[in-house]
Design goal:
- The protein is an alpha/beta fold and about 325 residues long.
- It has 2 domains: about 180 residues, D-Maltodextrin-Binding Protein, domain 2 (3-Layer(aba) Sandwich), CATH 3.40.190.10; about 100 residues, D-Maltodextrin-Binding Protein, domain 2, CATH 3.40.190.
- The protein has 13 helices and 11 strands.
- Helix 1 runs antiparallel to helix 12 and helix 6 crosses helix 13.
- The two termini are about 25 Å apart.
């Protein structure tokens, strides 16, 4: 399963079923105090949003109670329409918010939120993206994508990658992907992003480097037949920020409880199953790079979303696929 918000939620679903700690410590600290969390969830085919809402609620309650300060949780799933997300984030009651970096920079950061954490699937927070082609496919650099078929991840975490590739092309004097590539197709699973290129059913894919490495570990032929022709800087696709209104005791307690959750063996095992490693403190240079990339994307009008069409196999002689 691909890492990102979908993998995060699936991990939370299972971990939250392990049971919640006692309320005694929180109640002793002085009555009821709900942890209020605002969160964006992806509308991808790999995630049941109704189940996700329940899972996030249970996880937030566990996290709040582990802090010894909060007695429960209240969770709201943000609507991601551009005209509504700013007003939702502006609500001063949030103790924590979870947003794609694009929306964090455009809304929360301007309201005084500071990026605290992101999700890591390797030793470093954030992600690195690679443009992958067949060694014998005749594509030597990104501008050779003219008239070719490109596959990307069909989720929001791929948006950073698309803007990065469009900027790379612009720097070479090339038109952007919509005018260059014959098609840009979104697929939810790493195998459906990488293997069509391996089998010659697509010309290139734009994927997480860690996903390509995992696929190569499973099948070394992937590494022998495919090659990387461009690599992004480390980027931060998702941002987790503690609230502006927390007092120092509450903030310290939440940061401590995040670290405690990371040490839970069952939770760590679930993270590993979903190719995730941990919540990690934000890498500030990577955050600055991501912010600057999104500023370029907004000014250039660079597209950040693939189509949802399926990849079709090339026709064989006789009309079969």
């Amino acid at each position: 399963m691909r890492m990102g918000a979908a993998g995060l939620v699936l991990g939370i679903v299972a971990w939250s079923a392990l049971g919640a700690p006692s309320r005694d410590a929180a109640l002793a600290a002085g009555g009821e105090r709900l942890l209020r969390v605002g969160i964006w969830l992806p509308g991808t085919v790999s995630l049941n949003l109704a189940d996700a809402r329940v899972a996030i609620q249970v996880w937030a309650e566990r996290w709040g109670r582990k802090s010894g300060v909060f007695t429960g949780a209240e969770v709201q799933v943000f609507e991601v329409r551009q005209e509504t997300i700013a007003s939702q984030v502006a609500d001063p009651r949030w103790d924590a918010i979870f947003l794609p970096s694009e929306d964090f920079f455009a809304t929360a950061e301007r309201l005084g939120y500071v990026a605290d954490y992101t999700i890591a699937r390797t030793e470093s927070p954030g992600d690195v993206y690679v443009l992958v082609v067949r060694r014998d496919g005749g594509i030597r650099e990104p501008v050779d994508l003219k008239g070719r078929r490109l596959i990307v991840a069909n989720e929001h975490s791929s948006s950073c990658a698309l803007v990065w590739l469009n900027r790379l092309l612009a720097g070479k004097g090339s038109p952007g992907l919509p005018a260059l590539a014959a098609s840009i197709v979104g697929e939810a699973k790493p195998a459906k992003q990488i293997l069509p290129v391996f089998f010659g059913q697509a010309d290139a894919c734009l994927v997480s480097r860690s996903e390509l490495e995992a696929m190569t570990d499973l099948n070394p032929q992937v590494g022998r037949r495919l090659e990387v022709i461009a690599t992004s800087p480390r980027l931060i696709p998702l941002v987790f920020s503690l609230g502006r209104g927390l007092d120092p005791r509450e903030r310290d307690a939440l940061q401590t409880s995040v670290r405690i959750a990371q040490g839970d063996p069952d939770f760590r095992q679930l993270l590993m199953l979903h190719r995730m490693r941990a919540f990690e403190p934000i890498d500030r240079p990577a955050l600055d790079t991501t912010r600057e990339l999104w500023e370029w994307g907004r000014s250039a009008g660079a597209p950040a979303k693939p189509s949802r069409a399926a990849v079709r196999r090339p026709r064989r002689p006789g009309g079969e696929r």
